[in-house]
Every structure is written in structure tokens, then in C-alpha cells.
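Problem 12. The chain below contains 194 residues. Write out its predicted structure in C-alpha cell notation.
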Amino acid sequence: MTDTLRAFIAIRLPDPVILFIRDLQADLKNRPELRFKWVRPESVHLTLKFLGNIRPDAVDAIAEAMAGTAAAWPPLSLSAKGLGAFPTSKKARVVWLGLTGDTHPLIELRKDLDGRLEPLGFPGETRSFKAHLTMGRAKGKVDPQSLVEAITAGASSASPTFTAGRLILFKSDLKPDGAVHTPLREATLTGRTD
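Solution.
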């Protein structure tokens, strides 16, 4: 059997945003009724495409698709702001942090990437893209009232603005204390705005 890699394409967050996430998670952890397994702040990233298990020999073709998208799009200006839950606050499985700024170009960039990956055997997404950063996953039933209160309390908090300028293909190794993400390839956004 051929070995495979669990992989995804994402944008890495800069240190000031990671510190913002750490502080926000600390506030949420002070609410014991919110039973979540919190993602380590340094592991939080903006996922553009989850690829699943891929063959190692597919990495170069994926990197080429990423390079094509990166050449077509300029760096984006984003900020993390606003908490939410998937699928709803009443049946929360995931708590997320939203994004503001160049979100429409981000959606279009993702569509471009999807289109370049589809011929390689990675089907396009059927769900609409909701740009978010996963903060935590529910460990059981979550009290909806407490979650709504936490979401409301964190609604106005915003990270420093950051530049999203690189697409990164990550390998993800699942470990007992959380996933370890290793960069395999990168592509710098160099498209022009004129």
C-alpha cells in the first residue's frame, strides 16, 4: 500500500493574531460551561482547501496549482473579528473566529484555487465558503445560552490587521495532544491590483 499524507492548503497567521487568539481563548476558557477542546493558538490557520489523504507524488502538481493562483492574486488585508458557531449556537460543534477586510477577494481566490485543483482530482466545494478560524471543537453538549453570551461578549474584539500573502501546503500529522502541521510548499501572492 502506498503511503499517503493528510494535507490542506492554508494561510498562516502572524504572531500578533496568534496572541490575540490566545487572549480570546483565555476568556472563553474562564467559562467552564463551554466544554470545548481548544485548538492551540499557534496551530490556528485560515484553511482554504482540505485535500484529505494525498499521495506524495501529487505534491508538485498541487504546488503548481497554488503557484498559478498566487500569481493571479495580490496579498490580502484581513483582521480576525467576531465569534460564531457551526452549525448553530444551539447545536454547536465548532466555535470559530470570523474575518473582516478583503473577504470578497479571499472568496474569489479560493474559487480560483478550487478550479485549478479540480483537474488534479480534488472536487470543488459545493458549500459556500465561510472564511473563519477554528478556535475549538465541542467535547459534548454545549449550553446554548452560555455560548450566545460568550459570542456576544467577544463580538467587538478584533485582531490587528494582517497581510495574507502566502498559500501554504501543509502536511497534518494527528497526535494525541493535537495535530502537527508541517509546511511542504509555499506560494507567494504576487498578482497586481491594477
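Discussion. The longest strand covers residues 76-86. Students who got a different answer should revisit the alignment rule from Section 12.3.
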